[in-house]
Design goal:
This protein is α+β, with helices and mostly antiparallel strands and 358 residues long. The chain has seven helices and twelve strands. Strands 3-2-1-5-8 form a five-stranded mixed β-sheet, covered by helices on one side. A hairpin with a 2-residue loop joins strand 1 and strand 2. Helix 1 runs antiparallel to helix 2. The chain is elongated and about 100 Å long. The termini are far apart. Bound molecules: dinuclear copper ion. The site of dinuclear copper ion (CUA) has 9 residues, from loops.
Length: 358
């Protein structure tokens, strides 16, 4: 809040790489609006005066049509609309696609507060600490109603929706403290649902991360939850119930029972926990119960982080590829591979015979 925008003080400070482009478009829209408003008003006043009742204006030979004029007032606004659309789309797509190396911060909205989790596992409430000059991706969801995570200084705002992940990314450009709002009416204390964005130098940010309670990383917390909730009882290597192994599946294509394919992303993993009947893996029975109401949104995010941490690489090891699926005697510790039970070739859609019939 300490610095004013280079513009005339109407806007909040610009503190992200997105702010400049968004303001550019904003001012373009304003200038167009002002120019055309003035043009219309000028014509209105001129003609109202010139042709007022009793004025001795020449009213003979009034033109009934003027093709070039009509083409002009159709084509110019159309062109301007395309420019606005294209410009807006470029900014929108840029904001939606986080760079690969972006650090991921989780945001969970609930009536009436924001819970934020850093990659190290540290939780914050109505505050979000970020390092300057580092791309940060927010993955957001709500536990109750629609909220909207709005950081004016970053010119970023997105609905936070129960049952869905929304996301945007930013790179803060200025150290400082900025406002954070909920920008969607969400009940009695909506107006109090806000907080502070704290942009720090990288070293300060890292110092802050290390201060306070030492918490398990998100992946470690997720692994604990994975066992606590009994997920490992079915999704583990030595499980008696045969469920798909989850090691290393993140980001990969999975074949579904209905013949389609899906990428195992955040959305898919979350839905598989809450709505397990929705997308059943090919070769498996829809026997998993829902964990809706038993695992919180915040915990689901950590479980996803754990699954991510088991690797996205190719886990199908050749060494034991013939040893039989789900071999109960398999001494493999966690993370060594999805042999046998989980090696449906995503591209060809051909199930490994060993995995069939589950
Ligand atoms: Cu949350 Cu308004």
């Amino acid at each position: 809040m300490n610095e004013k925008s280079p513009y005339i003080g109407l806007l909040p400070p610009q503190a992200s790489t997105t702010a400049g482009p968004v303001d550019g478009l904003f001012w373009f829209l304003n200038v167009i609006t002002i120019v055309f408003t003035l043009l219309v008003m000028a014509a209105l006043v001129t003609f109202a005066v010139k042709y007022r009742r009793g004025a001795r204006a020449d009213r003979s030979n009034a033109p009934l049509e003027n093709l070039p004029l009509e083409i002009a007032w159709t084509a110019i606004p159309l062109l301007l609309c395309f420019v606005i659309f294209g410009w807006g789309a470029v900014i929108f797509f840029h904001n939606s696609r986080a760079p690969k190396d972006a650090m991921n911060i989780y945001v969970v909205g609930k009536q009436w507060m924001w819970k934020v989790q850093q990659p190290t596992g540290r939780w914050e409430q109505n505050e979000i600490h970020v390092p300057v000059g580092v791309p940060v991706k927010l993955t957001m969801t709500s536990t109750d109603v629609l909220h909207d995570f709005f950081i004016p200084a970053f010119r970023l705002k997105a609905d936070v929706i129960p049952g869905r992940y929304t996301s945007y990314w930013f790179e803060a450009t200025k150290v400082g403290t900025y406002h954070l709002y909920c920008a969607e009416y969400c009940g009695t204390y909506h107006s109090k649902m806000g907080g502070t964005v704290i942009v720090q130098e990288k070293a300060d940010y890292e110092r802050w991360l290390r201060s306070g309670n030492v918490e398990p990383t998100r992946a470690a917390a997720g692994e604990k939850l994975f066992r606590q909730h009994g997920c490992s009882g079915c999704h583990g290597l030595n499980a008696s119930v045969k469920a798909p192994l989850l090691d290393g599946i993140y980001g990969k294509q999975r074949a579904l029972e209905n013949g389609s394919f899906v990428t195992a992303d955040d959305r898919y993993l979350r839905d598989s926990i809450y709505l397990p009947q929705k997308e059943v893996r090919a070769g498996f029975k829809p026997i998993m119960p829902t964990y809706k109401g038993r695992i919180s949104e915040a915990d689901v995010l950590q479980i996803i982080d754990y699954i991510k941490a088991t690797g996205g690489g190719n886990h199908v090891s050749n060494a034991s590829a013939g040893s039989g699926s789900g071999n109960p005697g398999n001494p493999n510790p966690y993370g060594t591979g999805d042999v046998g039970r989980d090696n449906i070739s995503a591209r060809s859609g051909i199930a490994n015979p060993q995995g069939a019939g589950r």
